[in-house]
Predict the structure.
Amino acid sequence: MSELTVPTAPVAALLEEKIRTRRAHVGVVGLGYVGLPLAVEFAKAGFQVTGIDLSAEKTGQINAGVSYVGDIASSELEPLVREGTLRATTDFAAVAELDTVNICVPTPLRKTKDPDMSYIVSACQEIAKYFHAGMLVILESTTYPGTTDEVVLPMLEKPGLRVGRDFFLCFSPERVDPGNARFQTRNIPKVVGGTTPACTAIGGAFYSQALQKVVPVSSTQVAEMVKLLENTFRMINIGLVNEIALMCDRMGINVWEVIEAASTKPFGFMPFYPGPGLGGHCIPIDPFYLSWKTKQAGIEARFIELAGYINGQMPHFVVDKIQNALNDAAKPVKGSHVHVMGVAYKKDIEDVRESPALDVILLLERRGARITYSDPHVPRLHMDRFDLVSEPMETAASADCVVIITDHSAFDYGWLAASARLIVDTRNALKGVSGSHIVRL
Ligand code: SAJ
């Protein structure tokens, strides 16, 4: 005869009560530009928070109350560490004491444009060692639809533990826009979808304690797809406007004027701008997580592939413009001094990941140009074939050609237009400035 088992309160009710009374011990794995702000928000909401990261340098800085993430001031972090609300460790054994874990690790692409799931897998392998009943796990890393239920869930399941009853699993896309003063972790609506309805409910209750708006959806796949739609939308529209720029260039039409006038339409239009290519660690990458998955399902993501091709062509187009501009000045690219203004992947930030400036510099160097650059946010540019340091903007005055790749606010464009012999402007930074020495995208 089976022994009488005293029915325990449903695990969900116990966990939800811990969350609502803020007695839950919150964990965040991956303390980068997504994880650290999330950890801080939950600590500020009154939870005990433990951050886990592989980098002892990162955890050491956090435990010293020093922030290395632009969106979090040390003055905001230090009190939380001092009062013991937030601590960081490299030891995953801390998971044994946690009630919730958010996974915020990178999801890059391999060179073959296949998803690199190694960070998610290794984080889950470590979490699984200390994982216990009653936990809520939420994956935040951008990934293809199906990852949470097909990759993460099997790594957490243990004999006798059933998802949605004994533990809870969700996906919630990170929407952090580094440097955005208006939208920060706390006030960006938070989409969350669970493996089961009970998971979604717990995930929603969790985020509601620290964030302003929660948007529950019916499954992890929907939540995974939301993020991919958001960023694929941007990537394809940037590709469209880059193709429009190529058309306008061929027809001698000022594409910037076209976009400015189209933007007067008060509905049904959203301006995007042409540029030297597509940089960053989100937009050039996220859509290929989607196209990789759809290929598995036998569907060709043709818009993504085409936009990827067009965006990938822009650095070549820019280098051709530079070559033609030098040619018009009877100067070969070979041996000419080309000065690059701005190498970060977008204005007023320091990140150079996937920056089109890297492609432009490599292409010019292959054609024999001598390259220098100025970027107040990027003091040094170390790449496989060369090692450059940012030079004063005055260097532009002595160059055979200046190319504006990233239109940082810190540049003095009036001085540049008056001082440079020849300028290729890929960002319309010299809008309204005329001169036969200025060539626009
Ligand atoms: N770009 C263009 N033309 C445009 C817009 C962007 O060429 O009209 C280029 C940029 O120069 C850059 C690349 O595209 O090289 C990406 O720029 P981005 O403005 O999309 O900035 P990201 O990569 O920082 O994207 C992030 C994303 N945030 C998240 O994924 C959480 C994206 O969803 C945001 O919409 C974007 O920030 C934002 O709006 O700032």
About this structure: Confidence is low (pLDDT under 50) at residues 1-8.
